[in-house]
């Protein structure tokens, strides 16, 4: 084993990590290499009948679905044909054990891919489940650059639930203004908010009202096949696994299927103790698997709908509509009923109750460490910094550096970013989360949190009032490079003395994305056991763009030699890089 490790340059200090790395780096003999060649470019598309420039992969949005088995190596050769725009793609939910440079987070793990260049991402999918990929440069995700990753169990192994067929559905919201226009508004003085999306998409299809006044002639075509309702065809009597995921730029959503209950069985790649819902609340960056049975009247089709929650319904986009198509009915045959209404947009209790209902499957419990080594409390605030509207954590708004952290830390480039870490808490005693605060001490920084390798870290996400009176927004937080245990949710202000006593340490679900509900808190725990540099941020595009995120570094001395292909920007300018 020692010779094998030396021969393959497994630069590890701890033998346990070496073994884990090599299991991922050199998978079982029956594992396969899944090779994809993608070209990213702008094309005119009409996903909601309104024609606009969209970022496509091989001409498609959503992009191709990556299909693999546990232990496979995925290789994606990505050519940037955007002509005037950089790009990077994040593999959402893939932990990148042994390949932190393939996480795809511009400014954190790599320099962006410049126009005309081809970049190779290579990583092992070490766990079965439902995952995503999407752009992680600027606000490109909401321009159409996203898709699904489905990782199956190896042959001969089975899951703790039965189904006949497997389908993937990505939910999204859709803006007609370009990401550039939105970004300029967010960075301007006076501040210009992006507003509510124009449409909701189900698997890349939606419907904007082409009769809207003041539209330019020819820009909206209600008969375009690109915006015909998406249809999932089912055979009567069969059972289906629907992998439902959300990559919204702004909206929290509810998803429902007319006349059909859904049994939740998976969340972010982990098996759930099954529970039944009529509607599924889902937040940007989350993935779920639900089981449905095609056991209704087969002579007709049924509505699948999605609607905005947690934001005022009167200002939000109209519901997204799709069909559950019972074979042999025509997939474009409209159901004979009115689409079912979703839940009330402001019913916080219902959303909180669903979050609390998600527990680990009884046969797949990963027991968390009973105590943390370090506790951080992240107050989610909105601030005015140097005349600009920003989102912040503990009154510090995050800025991406010009030199990616992974390179700067590995090569000891201490001038590449602020060496002072951000605060790990706030004024718990005096801060009133229910009031608009001046936060005159707010600032911005590109400093990071350095975590001792293999320690246990608790994060308390504390929500608060925004700069608008009586307003608090739902924030879905996503952690790169790890899964975490969700220990609890609560309303109001987190009580450092009493709330930890209520943590679920018996069967907490593990996830990579979790909401912090309005005027509430969420507690999570993870092990800092994956060498690299990892972003942790709000998954709402505009919020992260405005500074709502942090970065963790751990085990940098255990990271292998960095590929030159991730270099070429900031203090690594002039470093020769190869695809």
Automatic annotation (TrEMBL):
Chemical reaction(s) catalysed: 4 L-ascorbate + O2 = 4 monodehydro-L-ascorbate radical + 2 H2O
Q: Which InterPro entries match?
A: Cu-oxidase-like_N (IPR011707), Cu-oxidase_2nd (IPR001117), Cu-oxidase_C (IPR011706), Cu-oxidase_fam (IPR045087), Cu_oxidase_CS (IPR033138), Cu_oxidase_Cu_BS (IPR002355), Cupredoxin (IPR008972), CuRO_3_AAO (IPR034267)
The EC number(s) this enzyme carries: 1.10.3.3
Would you name any one GO CC term?
extracellular region
Alphabetically sorted, this entry's keywords are: Copper, Disulfide bond, Glycoprotein, Metal-binding, Oxidoreductase, Repeat, Secreted, Signal
Query: Which Pfam family, giving just one, matches this sequence?
Result: Cu-oxidase_3
Kindly list the cofactors needed: Cu cation
Primary localization: secreted
Q: Show which residues constitute the signal peptide.
A: 1-31
Plastocyanin-like domain boundaries: 40-152, 168-327, 434-555
State the family it belongs to: Belongs to the multicopper oxidase family.
This chain's protein is named: L-ascorbate oxidase
Q: Which organism is it from?
A: Rubus argutus
């Amino acid at each position: 084993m020692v010779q094998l490790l030396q021969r393959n340059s497994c630069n590890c200090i701890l033998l346990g990590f070496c073994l884990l790395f090599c299991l991922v780096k050199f998978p079982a003999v029956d594992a396969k290499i899944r090779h994809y060649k993608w070209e990213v470019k702008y094309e005119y598309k009409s996903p909601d009948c309104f024609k606009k420039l969209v970022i496509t992969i091989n001409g498609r949005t959503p992009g191709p679905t990556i299909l693999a088995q546990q232990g496979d190596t995925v290789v994606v050769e990505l050519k940037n044909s955007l002509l005037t725009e950089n790009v990077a793609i994040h593999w959402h939910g893939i932990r990148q054990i042994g390949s932190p440079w393939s996480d795809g987070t511009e400014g954190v793990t790599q320099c962006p891919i410049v126009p005309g260049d081809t970049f190779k991402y290579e990583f092992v999918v070490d766990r079965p489940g439902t995952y995503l990929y999407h752009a992680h440069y600027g606000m490109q995700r909401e321009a159409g650059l996203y898709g699904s990753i489905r990782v199956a169990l190896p042959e001969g192994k089975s899951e703790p639930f039965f189904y006949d067929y497997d389908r993937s559905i990505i939910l999204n919201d859709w803006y007609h203004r370009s990401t550039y226009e939105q970004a300029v508004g967010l960075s301007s003085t006076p501040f210009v908010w992006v507003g509510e999306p124009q449409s909701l998409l189900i698997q890349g299809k939606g419907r904007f009202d082409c009769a809207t006044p003041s539209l330019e002639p020819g820009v909206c075509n209600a008969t375009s096949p690109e915006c015909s309702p998406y249809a999932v065809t089912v055979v009567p009597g069969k059972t289906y696994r629907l992998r439902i995921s959300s990559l919204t730029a702004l909206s929290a959503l509810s998803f429902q299927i007319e006349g059909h209950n859904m049994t939740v069985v998976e969340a972010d790649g982990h098996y759930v103790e099954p529970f039944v819902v009529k509607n599924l609340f889902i937040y940007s960056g989350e993935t779920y698997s639900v089981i449905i049975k095609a056991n209704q009247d087969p002579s007709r089709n049924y509505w699948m709908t999605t609607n905005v929650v947690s934001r005022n319904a009167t200002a939000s986009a109209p519901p997204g509509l799709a069909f559950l198509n019972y074979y042999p009915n025509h997939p474009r045959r409209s159901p004979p009923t009115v689409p079912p209404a979703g839940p009330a947009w402001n019913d916080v209790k219902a959303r909180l109750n669903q979050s609390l209902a998600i527990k680990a499957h009884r046969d797949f419990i990963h027991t968390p460490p009973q105590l943390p080594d370090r506790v951080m409390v992240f107050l989610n605030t909105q601030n005015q910094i140097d005349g600009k509207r920003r989102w912040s954590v503990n009154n510090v708004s995050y800025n991406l550096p010009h030199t990616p952290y992974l390179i700067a830390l590995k090569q000891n480039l201490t001038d590449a970013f602020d060496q002072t870490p951000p605060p790990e808490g706030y004024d718990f005693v005096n801060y009133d989360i229910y009031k608009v605060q001046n936060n005159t001490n707010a600032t911005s920084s590109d400093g990071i949190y350095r975590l001792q390798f293999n320690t246990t870290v608790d994060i308390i996400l504390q929500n608060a009032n925004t700069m608008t009176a009586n307003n608090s927004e739902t924030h879905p937080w996503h952690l790169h490079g790890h899964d975490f245990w969700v220990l609890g949710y609560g309303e109001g202000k987190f009580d450092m003395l009493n709330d930890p006593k209520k943590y679920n340490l018996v069967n907490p679900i593990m996830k990579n994305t979790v909401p912090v509900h309005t005027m509430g808190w969420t507690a999570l725990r993870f092990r800092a056991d994956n060498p690299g540099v990892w972003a942790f941020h709000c998954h709402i595009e505009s919020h992260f763009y405005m500074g709502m995120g942090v970065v963790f570094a751990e085990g940098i001395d255990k990271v292998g030699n960095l590929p030159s292909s991730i270099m070429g920007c900031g203090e690594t300018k002039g470093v020769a890089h190869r695809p």
